[in-house]
């Protein structure tokens, strides 16, 4: 089984559960006036063809309205949020898909995206213009989101403007987002930065609190650095970025770990090895306690590895973790270790994401 660490499951929403309001457009009004005038003239002049043409126009208007109403009621909206790139600032990507399950086509003129902080809404520019939703087809697009406030979770709202084929009728049904789509917006600087000063043979830990906007610094001996980071300094102080997931998704909160090399690349072998060994140790502790442990490893190019370790797993599963971590191509790439800690409150778990510099030496092998 493989999946990307940053992906969230798609969630389906109906365009509108209530009665969609269909408005007559200026073109529709013009058609209606022309059809009425032609019908009146046809009756007064006793002209069969003029009367027939007017009835065709009016019949088309009625059918167009019925078709648009039916298409809206049978169109589903799918949305997916991806995590922000931890090392590149405040940006996220929203993926959208509209599926028209009806046998009638219609136009999408504009889609407004709203992001809410819980107190106020932030309107983005219109996402898409002049897209035809063909019968029994779907449309896909993506929206990058940048420049938002750091350390917050935003909820996406949608308002879509649709028109019938021919543009006689329009509607702006609201897409009901329930559950809402979470959008990760993390600090530009990772919440946790570990930098090593080789002259002191120690690791300096800077823990960034995204809620209090504070930076905390402490020195650790290499051997204890990773263990202290995980449990003593951060878990105890609850320095987590938390979001409430949809009911169908495993509970997740996020702790970001970023390793930056400020001196010699070779000086990182101990910390890299500690991180890998501690990961296996944590996996062993949690799975023996009947918990689930999952390891996702991905890089900037979209390649990834995935290891799922069931509860009460044997040593074979931990060999898989060690092998997967050891085969990472270090450098500007990312790897992540996701711990689904089921004993945490229902809306929490923890994700640890590491970044190791180029040319890390481990076990006599050089990874670049």
From TrEMBL:
Annotated ranges, domain DUF58: 218-342
One Pfam family cited in the UniProt record for this chain: DUF58
The keyword Transferase appears for this protein: no
Transmembrane residue ranges: 21-46, 52-72
Keyword field: Membrane, Transmembrane, Transmembrane helix
InterPro entries per the UniProt record, alphabetical: DUF58
Name of this protein: DUF58 domain-containing protein
Native source species: Paenalkalicoccus suaedae
